[in-house]
Amino acid sequence: MGDTDEQEQRHRRLTAWQRSGRVLARMSADHTLAGRLAALAADAGTVHDLGGWTDVYGGGVVAEVERRTAGLLGMEAAAFFPTGTMAQQVALRCWAGRTGNATVALHPLAHPEVHERGALTSVSGLRTVHPTTAPRPATADEIRDFPEPFGTLMLELPLRDAGFVLPTWEELRAVVAAARERDAVVHLDGARLWECTAHFGRGLPEIAALADSVYVSFYKSLDGLSGAVLAGPESLVEEARTWRHRYGGQVFQQYPAALSALLGLERELPRLPSYVAHAKLVAGALAEGLAGSAVPWFRVHPEPPHTHQFQVWLPYASDVLDEASVRQAEETGVTLFRRWFAAPTGPPGLSFTEITVAAPGLEWTAQDVRAAVADFVTRLHEEETRLQEEAAPPQGEGARAGATPQA
Q1: Of 61, 249, 349, 368, which sees the most CB atoms within 10 A?
Q2: Cα distance between residue 290 and residue 300, in whole Å
Q3: Residue 277 to residues 55, 83, 201, 308, 383: CA-CA distances in angstroms?
Q4: Residue 19, in any domain of the structure
């Protein structure tokens, strides 16, 4: 698919999602510029004094985000970064210098390995190793028994590409203890740490206290525009500010992102436990609906979800599933599924999607979910039939092609 075709498809999807009266979540990128700007202008004054001066290379509202986040995590200090990719590269580079070991142990499905084009190695000069390749968090034994030294253990909580999965609290503590036994520091990729408290049954400060440093994002779960924070000891954060400048992250003004971060902390953060609880209902109803449908196989993973996000797997090509999903949104005003992706490994024709349950999803009952599943499966089979008919030769063509010419 060319760039123009992909842009047209994206416009079609965004239009369908925006016009849907019923969705499980409305993502921060699903809005028009006018809508996003109007909402920020209308709400920002509730979380910060708009009579103050704009930030200039930090300070002002950016410093307020740093102070607020450090307090929420129970950390000494925090630094605001334009992206989480930069924040984590800086953190891991700083720890490599302090430990004298540039090797980082992390999961092969962790964000730096899957979504950053090898940045840790090519940009920061770090080396990565994988204590496990299983699609789950590493165990304490795997950390303890790994056959080569590493300076930093990076834990992604939750592990998004394995299905937003988390260890138990006891397992997490054991993994951290195993790293300490090896004299390694622990860094948390907490892009989605905000929604982990319900699963662990612990508050953010207690979770963050297990680690030496923590990164958190403001747009993935808190509906912010962009931005991230690296939190940890004062000395580490001061060093990180220096590297932030060197990496090009000393942005002149960031007040829109900072204001949206404060709004997320004020409004979305307290609601995340309710999203996590309702995601369990949605996942269960999805499984019931698919089990009672004509699809030959499915999987909801994990079941129940560990956070307010989880995966659904189906044995169909991603483009077929995408078309059925967008048609459902266009024709019924119900968005059940968003994008589908081909499985990275395994047999062809297997695809997955990621489900997020946020404020709009709280309105869905189990029956609403099951009804939406039934309607989606009907459209899925219609799309399959249409593609099969398009691929079939015209009626009679085979007979004509094999006919013997008359003398």
Answers
A1: 61
A2: 9
A3: 38, 29, 13, 7, 34
A4: no
Task: Tell me, yes or no, whether 233 and 280 share the same domain.
Answer: no
Name the helix (H) or strand (E) containing 328. Answer: helix 318-332
Residues 86 and 158 in one domain: yes
Instruction: Please give the radius of gyration of the chain, using alpha carbons only, rounded to the nearest integer.
Output: 24
Domain interval for residue 294: 271-389
pLDDT of residue 403: 46
Alpha-carbon span 90 to 81, nearest angstrom: 10
E strands in 30-132: 77-81, 103-105, 127-129
**DSSP code for 264:** I
Strand partners for 299? 313
- Which position has the token pair 């700007």? 37
Number of domains observed in the structure of the chain:
2
One domain for residues 229 and 97: yes
- Residue 389 has a pLDDT of 81
How confident is the model at residue 345, as a pLDDT?
86
Q: Mark whether 208 and 290 lie in a shared domain.
A: no
Indicate whether 219 belongs to any domain: yes
For residue 137, give the amino acid letter: P
248 and 275 in a single domain? The answer is no
- Please give the Cα distance from 310 to 369 (Å, whole number): 15
Question: What value, to the nearest 5°, has the Cα angle with vertex 135 and ends 129 and 141?
Answer: 60
pLDDT for 315-350, tens place per residue? 999 999 999 999 999 999 999 999 999 999 888 899
Residue with the bigger pLDDT between 390 and 299: it is 299
Distance CA 169, CA 191 (A): 18
- Is 209 inside a domain boundary? yes
Residue where one domain finishes, among candidates 197, 225, 252:
252
pTM equals 0.93
Q: Are 245 and 276 within one domain?
A: no
Do residues 179 and 218 both lie within one domain? yes
CA within 13 Å, CB half, 318: 12
- Kindly state whether residue 41 falls inside one of the protein's structural domains: no
What pLDDT is recorded for position 397? 55
User: Checking DSSP bridges between strand 309-314 and strand 127-129, what pairing results, if any?
Assistant: unpaired
Give the three-state DSSP class for 355.
Answer: strand
On whether both 244 and 378 belong to a single domain, the answer is no
Question: What span, in angstroms and rounded, lies between the C-alpha atoms of 45 and 47?
Answer: 5
Terminal-to-terminal C-alpha distance of the chain: 47
| pLDDT computed for residue 1 by the predictor | 59
The Cα–Cα gap between 153 and 183 comes to: 10
